[in-house]
Design brief:
By secondary structure, this protein is an alpha+beta fold. It is built from five helices and four strands; from the N terminus they run αααβαββαβ.
């Protein structure tokens, strides 16, 4: 999809605060409400805007531990991947899940209350499908975290 500078400005504003009324977005970008609304509807129709969501504070919700879990497997069949993907996808504590290139096969980002809670999640994860190696790295400090995508031309 080709985005012009007005599209990028609208999307940047919505990435910052998707609850703004159309009138506020339109005013900030210098459009009238109807053309602004039509652009936003086009973004939604074309899947540029996948969904709108509230971003919650993990710490305030008691989820202060972030763990990056590197998984290696000796199984690379479609059946194994389906079982593993379905099992991991059912774990709400896994907030990101990637199939990787390189030395590890899968990378998971997990949030937990504390180390004991992570141990419970780890034990559940190891029962999902046969795994060769699981390595957990605990985040010591979050330096940057954003959901905003770069929208430069």
């Amino acid at each position: 999809m080709v985005l012009d500078s007005m599209d990028r400005r609208i999307l940047a504003i919505l990435q910052e605060d998707a609850t703004l009324p159309i009138s506020e977005v339109a005013e900030r970008v210098g459009l009238s409400q109807t053309p602004c609304w039509k652009r936003i509807k086009r973004f939604e129709r074309d899947g540029v805007i996948e969904r709108r969501a509230a971003i919650l504070d993990r710490e305030k919700l008691g989820l202060g531990v972030t763990v990056f879990v590197a998984v290696r497997t000796a199984h690379h069949t479609d059946e194994w991947l389906q079982a593993f993907s379905e099992g991991v996808s059912l774990m709400p504590e896994v907030v990101e899940f990637y199939r990787m290139s390189g030395d590890i096969d899968y990378l998971l980002k997990v949030v937990a209350r504390d180390i004991a809670d992570y141990d419970r999640i780890y034990r559940k994860l190891t029962k999902v499908a046969p795994l060769h190696d699981v390595s957990s790295s605990f985040a010591m400090q979050e330096i940057k975290s954003t959901t905003a995508l770069p929208l430069s031309a």
